[in-house]
């Protein structure tokens, strides 16, 4: 080690520069660098969406409740119409006209021919 130290003292800063220079001249493996970048890009990301989750069971419950409400309303309307419909109805009187005299076709033909 002492011999190496003496050599460094004699060369001074040139020995240090040579060490740095050799480290800087190392070539990086191009394929290695590309593979590292590709790994980060291909990483799976979680899917985010703003769509609502549709639950068919909830929709069926809503439809059933609406059906019940409408059947109740229908029953109420029928009961109200029965109450107002009990008033006596007036029968419409049909007036029949008495039969007219039969038309004399021969007489009208003679009158037209005289014109």
Describe this protein's structure.
With 115 residues, the protein is mainly α. The model has no long low-confidence stretch (mean pLDDT 73). It is built from 5 helices and no strands. The protein is elongated and about 160 Å long. Residues 81-115 are annotated as: Disordered. One of its GO terms (biological process) is ribosome biogenesis. InterPro entries: RBIS. Residues 105-115 have a biased composition (Polar residues).
Q: In percent, how helical is the residue content?
A: 55-70%
Provide the gyration radius in Å: 55 Å
Indicate the mean pLDDT: 73
Largest sheet: none
The ordered H/E elements are: HHHHH
**What is the strand content?**
under 5%
Number of helices: 5
Shape: elongated
Distance between the termini: 158 Å
The total count of strands amounts to 0
User: Low-confidence runs (pLDDT<50, min 5 residues)?
Assistant: none
From the helix content, strand content and strand pairing, which structural class follows?
mainly alpha
Features of this protein?
64% helix; RBIS; mainly alpha; single chain
């Amino acid at each position: 080690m002492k011999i190496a130290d003496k050599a460094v003292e004699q060369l001074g800063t040139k020995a240090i520069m040579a060490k740095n220079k050799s480290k800087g001249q190392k070539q990086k493996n191009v394929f290695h660098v590309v593979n590292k970048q590709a790994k980060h890009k291909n990483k799976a990301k979680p899917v985010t969406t703003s769509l609502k989750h549709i639950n068919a069971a909830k929709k069926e419950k809503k439809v059933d409740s609406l059906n019940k409400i409408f059947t109740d309303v229908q029953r109420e309307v029928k009961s109200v119409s029965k109450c107002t419909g009990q008033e006596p109805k007036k029968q419409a009187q049909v007036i029949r006209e008495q039969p007219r005299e039969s038309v004399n076709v021969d007489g009208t033909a003679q009158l037209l021919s005289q014109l």
